[in-house]
Amino acid sequence: MIGIGAEDLSDLRQRLARTRWPDQPPGPPWQTGTDLAYLRDLVDYWRTSYEWPRREALLNRLRQFRVTLDGIDVHFIHQPGVGPAPMPLLLLHGWPSSIVEFTRLIPLLTDPAAHGGRAEDAFTVIAPSLPGFTLSFASGQPRSSIARIASTLATLMRDVLGYGHFAAHGGDWGAHVAARLAYTQAQRLLGIHLTMIVLPFATGAAGESADERDFREAVRRWNREESGYATLQATRPQTLAYALNDSPSGLAAWILEKFRAWSDCGGDLERRFSRDELLDNIMLYWFSGCINSSFWPYYARVHEEATLPAGAKLQVPTGFAAFPAGAVHVPRSLAERAYDIRRWQVMPAGGHFPALEEPVALAGELQEFFRPLRSTAERLD
Is position 347 within any domain? Predict the structure, then answer.
């Protein structure tokens, strides 16, 4: 269960009230980063109107647990499915997200019959806070690369929860973890469903298709305009952490800019996310003090090891849903060089946070992709 005390909440309100605001540079709002007027208004709401005890109680309706694994107290949701044979599904968030992203999605997956679906499509959902993120962080604990996160969660699923076989879904770092699990735990993975493809090779080979050339050019543009945050988090995470760990307004600015840039919100954050949802996510980062640790996968990818070894070919059935906003999607021709693609869907709406933006569409995709794999699950277990 989540529990934040009155003293911590009082400290937060005082820090918010003492925010020393920068000026707003010339040019359109948001062009150079989080808009000053929007953030001031949101921080005022955060300080005076946002009701964390009520939001905490809503989050605590989900079944939550902790277990110590690999020197980390791992927090996870374990929500049983309502149906004849629910499939165990590991839901994996990314950065700068958290379990908050799954609050709309989980009921659709665990009890589809209650939402107009079929009971046979039910999942039992296991949604961890990734080791090093929010509720799975404590100061001084070991840092977790993607390889280590995948290993820890494999132990959670097998040794703690007793699932011999399971499915996984993820985007962003969650897609990296799912891919790593498919590489290292292929005999236990029933299938993986992704909203981002991790390639174990460089692009740009001779004879590439028009789609592949367009992809390479889109990546170039993204790196020029959008990748500054990743470079900083991968090279000097400690320096950045001093500012974001000390200022809740600064932390909010850093996270909110990505929710706006990467979602299908048309420039209006609150068209896709409520203020309370945005602040719920920021609260978990703030009170856990995890922002420095949450940067570690970026640093580890550059300085330790890649998610997948060069030339890896995954043998696990894979589904992919391309939500149009906030990402440069790999062409299917490249994905099929590394994955056993069984389903490939281009979605009409949504972005980097589909579980919050398009939960009904995402739930439907997960049900469609995993439906033919359920017979395998029943045979194995």
Answer: yes
Q: Which residues are catalytic?
A: 172, 298, 352
pLDDT in tens, 328-352: 889 999 999 999 999 999 999 999 9
The distance from CA 229 to its chain's CA centroid, rounded to whole angstroms, is 16
Q: Which of 63, 62, 91 minimizes the C-alpha distance to 166? A: 91
What string of DSSP letters covers 277-327?
Answer: HHHHHHHHHHHHT-HHHHTHHHHHHHHT--SS-TT----SEEEEEE-SSS-
4: which 2 tokens? 């934040």
Q: What domain count does the chain have?
A: 1
Residue 24, domain member (yes or no): no
CATH number at residue 341: 3.40.50.1820
What digits encode the pLDDT tens for the residues 107-116? 999 999 999 9
Would residue 306 count as lying in a domain? yes
In the three-class reduction of DSSP (H, G, I as helix; E, B as strand; rest coil), residue 205 is classed as: coil
Q: How far is CA 71 from CA 46, 61, 173, 372, in A?
A: 34, 27, 21, 38
Residue that the structure tokens 């079929």 belong to: 118
- pTM check: above 0.85: yes
Average pLDDT, the chain: 95
